[in-house]
Write a structure and sequence with these properties.
Blueprint (H helix, E strand, L loop, with lengths): L11 H14 L4 E8 L5 E7 L12 E6 L7 H16 L4 H9 L1 E5 L4 H10 L18 E4 L10 E5 L5 E3 L7 E3 L9 E6 L1 E4 L42 H11 L4 E8 L3 E5 L11 H18 L2 E4 H8 L6 H8 L3 E7 L10 H9 L3 H19 L4 E9 L3 E8 L1 H4 L4 H19 L5 E12 L2 E10 L9 H5 L7 E5 L5 E4 L3 E3 L8 E10 L7 E6 L3 E6 L2
Helix pairs in contact: 2-12, 6-12
The structure holds zinc ion (ZN).
């Protein structure tokens, strides 16, 4: 098939079409399944990529990528589609991709919230995750975002007001900045989201709670808190069909060692731990997430920090996906945040957050002015709609304008391919860390009449240990590597358990030996299966 267009975003039907094109074009390495239905009944797809001629997908260590657990963050699903394309088109032509897809399995769930993506792309508004009415079944009184001037975008409204908290920036007349505490020199403005006010009392304009206030990335069981403490968390962990579909998929694919969850709104790579501190976290796990994360920084230019730092310094996230994956399941996880227009001003997310926290309003104004300048120069001004007068049915004369939110938090189409490409390079690099379980017959030694001792040497040639993390050991999530012997009828096992538990095998050079003594009726024969949940399964024949 021809390379799909990665300079665009994909609504549900178009995305489904591409996924189906993939499996038709690459039947030996790609398969597609529906892992659940969204609230509105759309399919949630999982793509499995591996060379099925070299083994069953579940018998190989696996690497997982998902996108669009947040609806409006549509850069994520295009990136996931690109990643799939990198693997599919590279298998058979690119040595690294060929080896990886022969030895490993790749699971890709491009869109966790198809309803959210559909709403964001078709109606131009902001959707955090899903579209179920939450936490209130009926919309509450107040201002609800809506496109009222019919330009297809939900922007901002400003109203000139001596008591307003905003004013026009000296650096750019389109930019509104916060009014300083000692500023008496107007004009000043009140600023709201573009929209209409339910039950307007003629005076007060307050933003109504979001109608669709669910955040699927707060609906996981680790460190979960109810709505009163964590907005968007749902009635209970896994209350949503979308998060339940993920949980069922992940728990029924215990071969996955590493996860990436794709987002936008920052340009960063967020690593474990979330609840623990770096100091409490097992040292070897910290080293691994730092090493892998640092390579991600080199390849993407994003900034690396921990969920714990996010929780301490930026915002608290209870019940998120990554906390469940690392702290409860003991698997590696990174949350990659792919785009933030403010990064065009030359500040990374940690610096921006520091400026926010320190109330560096001058610095933030410069960042916003730089973003506008970038939009003018690179996008021909497309992402920002200049302020224009509008007669609001409730508020009277207002001006409407501002950033197209889709492009503030998503790579513009012409830069989307570049974003996808650098992420795919990071995925390829991280995918190399897989535990590489190797097993071979070490010795078949005759010690008596038809009695033989058979030993097997088992190695882990990969970077990750077979337990993946020490956290998995701590949480009793790491199953031991096993070696099992199967004999023909009539042959008798004299010494050794038929299935031996060998514990975990360290990465880069870890070795174990398994041994059995058998009386054979004829020549030695049979099968030995060496198996590790996360490192794969190897079968040897005794001969
Ligand atoms: Zn997000």
């Amino acid at each position: 098939m021809n390379k799909p267009d990665f300079a665009r975003f994909y609504p549900h039907d178009d995305l489904t079409q591409i996924l189906n094109d993939y499996i038709v074009a690459y039947p030996d390495i790609a398969s597609l399944e529906v892992i659940g239905k969204s609230h509105e009944g759309r399919d949630i797809h999982a793509l499995t990529i591996t060379n099925t001629k070299t083994g069953d997908p579940l018998d190989k260590p696996a690497f997982y990528v998902d996108g669009n657990i947040h609806g409006s963050e549509v850069t994520a699903s295009t990136t996931a589609l690109y990643w799939a394309w990198t693997l599919l088109s590279g298998h058979g032509s690119d040595d690294q991709v060929t080896r990886l897809a022969d030895e490993c399995t790749f699971y890709i769930i491009p869109v966790v919230s198809p309803d959210g993506v559909e709403r964001a792309l078709k109606e131009g508004g902001f959707v955090r995750s899903g579209t179920r009415m939450y936490p209130h079944e009926e919309p509450k009184d107040g201002l609800h975002p809506e496109d009222i001037d019919g330009n297809g975008l939900i922007l901002q409204m400003r109203i000139q007001d001596d008591g307003g908290g905003w004013k026009i920036s000296d650096k750019d007349p389109r930019l509104l900045v916060q009014r300083r505490f000692n500023d008496t020199e107007g004009p000043f403005y009140r600023v709201y989201s573009e929209g209409l006010i339910q039950n307007f009392n003629g005076v007060e304009v307050k933003e109504a709670p979001r109608k669709q206030g669910l955040d699927f990335n707060r609906n996981f069981p680790a460190n979960w808190e109810p709505q009163v403490k964590q907005g968007g968390s749902g009635e209970y962990p896994f209350s949503e069909p979308e998060t339940r579909a993920l949980a069922e998929f992940i728990t029924s694919h215990p071969n996955i060692h590493s996860f990436h969850s794709l987002h936008t709104g920052m340009e960063s790579i967020i690593r474990p731990p979330a609840v623990q501190t770096d100091k409490d976290m097992p040292r070897e796990d910290l080293n691994r997430v730092r090493e892998i994360g640092k390579l991600g920084v080199d390849l993407t230019g994003y900034v690396l920090f921990s969920y714990r730092k996010l929780n301490d310094d930026i915002y608290v996230a209870h019940g998120d996906f990554a906390t469940w994956i690392y702290e409860q399941l003991g698997l590696l996880v990174f949350c990659c945040e792919l785009w933030d227009v403010r990064a065009r001003g030359g500040k990374n997310y940690v610096e921006l957050n520091e400026m926010n926290r320190e109330r560096d309003l001058d610095g933030l104004e410069e960042v916003e002015a730089a973003a506008l300048k970038w939009n003018d120069e690179e996008l021909g001004g497309e992402a920002f709609t200049d302020w224009h007068p509008f007669d609001h049915p409730q508020l009277g004369p207002v001006e409407i304008g501002g950033w197209n939110r889709l492009y503030r938090n998503n790579a513009p189409p012409k830069l989307l391919g570049e974003t996808c490409e650098k992420m795919s390079r990071f995925f390829l690099a991280h995918a190399e860390a897989y535990p590489r379980l190797r097993a071979e017959i070490h010795e078949i030694e005759q010690i008596g009449d038809n009695v033989y001792t058979i030993s097997v040497a088992i190695r882990n040639d990969g970077y990750l240990p077979t337990n993946v993390t020490q956290q998995a050991v701590k949480m009793k999530q790491a199953q031991p590597v096993t070696a099992a012997i199967e004999l023909s009828d009539g042959d008798t096992l004299l010494v050794g358990d038929p299935k031996q538990e060998l514990g975990n095998i360290a990465g880069y050079g870890g070795r174990k030996k398994a041994e059995w003594t058998v009386r054979f009726t004829g020549e030695p024969s049979g099968t030995i299966t060496v198996s590790s949940q996360r490192a794969g399964t190897t079968r040897l024949s005794i001969q």
